[in-house]
């Protein structure tokens, strides 16, 4: 019966706009009641396209005299021996009882629902194979339980649907009229169909019930809407009110489900149109959930301005944002690195009487963790606890992840132990964060200990876990162990990703096995994965360090041919390689090419060329590169000034060296040990002893060691001036720092 009705329903696809117009084609003035019986739906008869038909008459098979006697004896025994275990009461009847006897017993137990349900459960356990009689009995029991115990009725309907599917739906309709069921049974039936995942049956049930004049409530239909894919949800959202002839009217929750579905797939524009038309076209005013859902949708796609506009609209309507509303804004700000702005939102929220929940504090903790601001992280944790909120698993996960990212593994381990003491179970993400943190610090023993503990807890390492372990082994140049680990990963059905291959290629390059690294890149492409900029940069760096510049440049050309845009690190690797190989003119041409092709160099790019020209005492070329750097708007860094100062000192251009030293200090940069030595030596040559002595004191205060000849110069100066105490102190210092420490370093 239901199959035929479903087949008659023409399936159509609607655009969002078409669906919305269909939904709002007529004004809706009242909401659907929670239940509708055939008698209360008589006003809908004229508006439902299909003709109303009566519910079928129930005509069960009659028992024989012997069967009737058996059923009477059975029900009498059940009532008289109610306190005895059911199995003991039914033992004398067991061999003779059939499912039909259950059906005949139901009318006699109608007024005793607990006894009826116990008998039904016993029959189902003894006759696990679905049968028509058991399905009919389950439907009848659901009818009897619908008014007294809706939860029990819903459970019985779920059991029946699992056993009989659409045939069971026919049984519920067939038995409805005779057993005088409460009409809410059809709401419960639709809810049960959704519970067991029979969504097509639930949609067909809605339309089939209309032929009997029954309109399922909006609340029941909402459970179906929430489970449907977005396209089907929109179709049902528009179709159900039309099909019911105006009997079904969506409520705020219905619209919120539609808004949420659209936001989930990024279609916030149509979601906003639905919100705008809720009240004027459907008479349903948006609530806090409506606005918060849409605000979260805009935040999910990075549209802060639109989200803030909706916040203002909420305020005009007298709606007060809740913690979820604020959390959406804060999460977007944290994602954009604007954690200070997110904290201002938190302060505003508290000032306006909205208490932050655990999710809000977790967002802030995660944001500060990603910034590496651990003092702010601990402050947020303290505030959270003072508010009486207990950190949950997500909070601990964010905290552990942030500490691991910052290399604070002792603190991360302590938080992990606290998490365990709170009875929270860490998942794969927590263990992977710990493993990755240990691997980055080279603590492979601790990393594998965490890995083994993860396995003992029954957790399965994922690709990220194995990639972290592989990368850690590769950094320690244990490429063979990394390979074994990756084979283990493949044996568990996990597929290597680009990061995994890159870690292996990096390890092979560091071990000096560049040819094997190149073969691994070929294997990577054969596996359907495309090498990225990191892959090529790693290989180029290895070729540059081995002096094979032609092969490094060949890889750059291959990158460009494949449409992979090199990063600034790629160019810096190539520039450094050219300079180390003495190819300074090639380096200058590379720099010009980068500027011409809009690959903006950074200070490191220019520094490589400047350093090697200055080592060749070609300060004219060094200065030319420096000027080109400034003309391109690239800001000099600390290394830039140290290169210029050292170079000019060695070229005896002390005026220029002092100029750059003054400019460097004004920008907050510091001299390196080599620059101190060069500048002091240059000043001594110019007989500027006071300036030299000042730099000498400053250098030693910073823990730097002056060169031996500079110590000798100052010792001689003090001796000549008969400052024996200072001369002897410098003698002791030079012995300790220049001779003893050198010996220790050599051993």
UniProtKB/TrEMBL annotation:
<feature type="repeat" description="PPR">
    <location>
        <begin position="567"/>
        <end position="601"/>
    </location>
</feature>
<feature type="repeat" description="PPR">
    <location>
        <begin position="637"/>
        <end position="671"/>
    </location>
</feature>
<dbReference type="GO" id="GO:0005739">
    <property type="term" value="C:mitochondrion"/>
</dbReference>
<keyword id="KW-0677">Repeat</keyword>
<dbReference type="GO" id="GO:0007005">
    <property type="term" value="P:mitochondrion organization"/>
</dbReference>
<feature type="repeat" description="PPR">
    <location>
        <begin position="497"/>
        <end position="531"/>
    </location>
</feature>
<feature type="repeat" description="PPR">
    <location>
        <begin position="672"/>
        <end position="706"/>
    </location>
</feature>
<dbReference type="GO" id="GO:0003729">
    <property type="term" value="F:mRNA binding"/>
</dbReference>
<dbReference type="InterPro" id="IPR011990">
    <property type="entry name" value="TPR-like_helical_dom_sf"/>
</dbReference>
<feature type="repeat" description="PPR">
    <location>
        <begin position="287"/>
        <end position="321"/>
    </location>
</feature>
<keyword id="KW-0809">Transit peptide</keyword>
<feature type="repeat" description="PPR">
    <location>
        <begin position="251"/>
        <end position="285"/>
    </location>
</feature>
<dbReference type="Pfam" id="PF13041">
    <property type="entry name" value="PPR_2"/>
</dbReference>
<dbReference type="GO" id="GO:0006396">
    <property type="term" value="P:RNA processing"/>
</dbReference>
<feature type="repeat" description="PPR">
    <location>
        <begin position="392"/>
        <end position="426"/>
    </location>
</feature>
<protein>
    <submittedName>
        <fullName>Pentatricopeptide repeat-containing protein At1g05670, mitochondrial</fullName>
    </submittedName>
</protein>
<dbReference type="InterPro" id="IPR002885">
    <property type="entry name" value="PPR_rpt"/>
</dbReference>
<feature type="repeat" description="PPR">
    <location>
        <begin position="322"/>
        <end position="356"/>
    </location>
</feature>
<feature type="repeat" description="PPR">
    <location>
        <begin position="602"/>
        <end position="636"/>
    </location>
</feature>
<feature type="repeat" description="PPR">
    <location>
        <begin position="357"/>
        <end position="391"/>
    </location>
</feature>
<dbReference type="Pfam" id="PF12854">
    <property type="entry name" value="PPR_1"/>
</dbReference>
<feature type="repeat" description="PPR">
    <location>
        <begin position="462"/>
        <end position="496"/>
    </location>
</feature>
<feature type="repeat" description="PPR">
    <location>
        <begin position="532"/>
        <end position="566"/>
    </location>
</feature>
<feature type="repeat" description="PPR">
    <location>
        <begin position="427"/>
        <end position="461"/>
    </location>
</feature>
<dbReference type="InterPro" id="IPR051114">
    <property type="entry name" value="Mito_RNA_Proc_CCM1"/>
</dbReference>
